Amino acid sequence: MEILAFGVQADEKPMIEKAFEGHHDVRCLDVFLTEDTAPIAAGYEIISTSVNAILDHRVLQTLAAGGTQMIAQRSTGFNNIDLEVAERLGLTVARVSYYSPYSVAEFAWTLAMAVNRRIVRASNRTRDFDFRLDGLMGRDMRGRTAGVLGTGKIGEAFARIAHGFGMRLLGWDVAENPACVELGMEYVEKDRLLAEADLVTLHVPLLPATHHIIDAAALKAMKDDALLINSSRGGLVDTEALVTELRAGRFAGVGLDVYEAEAGLFFLDRSLAGVEDDTLARLVTFPNVVVTSHQAYYTTDAVGQIIDTTVQNVLDYTRGRRGENVLVPRLTSRAS
């Protein structure tokens, strides 16, 4: 059987081909799954998609009509998939429930230190042989407060690094993580965390309850000189409200690896076509903001785990097994 994989980055292609070797053939495409590209999947029983694929009812209907029966998403998040429609159409959907939390936590810290110590601005200056220090002053992290919204595996990994810096730890989640408590983390209400934290980092999934968890009110509750880091999902932050606060001169730094309207932009070269998104265009002009294109997970370790799990999900499907990563099970048990 040949598997069709959408949204494959150049670095990922040899890894995916090697992982499927001896099991199934795989055709890798650099285009993302959208309503326009969904017809390409006609005739493929199994497809694999990336985190920025759009699997709404129109796309899922096109896939089902073309003969697709299984979708193996190469990400943990699945907010981009209409699971109810997938179930109604009889489509099996699986995801990657776990990969290296250190990849995201370490990148979140990379963003935090980049905006705190003005690394991007300093690098751009030295390229022009401007070696002044004006405007590059940052702050020690030791003794300051890190507020971690979401203390699962990634949040815990972030907290361990913060603990290494000698920071006070505040946490917010639906349940306490004993490992974080052992680090000295104090669990508090969200409003208190936002008011006291010098650094606020987001590590919660994007759900209806967490959409715009950092809204206008939350932003106003934060310290004027706080750092805000989001390496989870763009929809957690109300970007227009964030721009309003930045225009008012607030926040020492903002590091965003995700953006709520990133689909159709991130992972693509838009340098010649330009970007029509006025909010994003305004956001990247602020000198205290660093925006990266959803690359926190992009390490050989994490991507390797994602691919290996995707292959296992496909093998479980073709062998008639229901694996632990299945979001929507197949309607019948039919081995291929």
From TrEMBL:
CDD domains per UniProt: LDH_like_2
Sorted UniProt keywords: NAD, Oxidoreductase
Enzyme Commission code: 1.1.1.28
InterPro entries registered for this protein in UniProt: D-isomer_2_OHA_DH_cat_dom (IPR006139), D-isomer_DH_CS (IPR029753), D-isomer_DH_CS1 (IPR029752), D-isomer_DH_NAD-bd (IPR006140), D-LDH-like (IPR058205), NAD(P)-bd_dom_sf (IPR036291)
Residue intervals of the D-isomer specific 2-hydroxyacid dehydrogenase catalytic domain: 8-327
Recorded GO MF terms: D-lactate dehydrogenase (NAD+) activity
Domain called D-isomer specific 2-hydroxyacid dehydrogenase NAD-binding: residue spans: 110-296
Superkingdom: Bacteria
Database matches in PANTHER family: 2-HYDROXYACID DEHYDROGENASE HOMOLOG 1-RELATED (PTHR43026:SF1)
Family the entry assigns: Belongs to the D-isomer specific 2-hydroxyacid dehydrogenase family.
UniProt protein name: 2-hydroxyacid dehydrogenase
Gene source species: Streptomyces omiyaensis
Organism taxonomic ancestry: Bacteria, Bacillati, Actinomycetota, Actinomycetes, Kitasatosporales
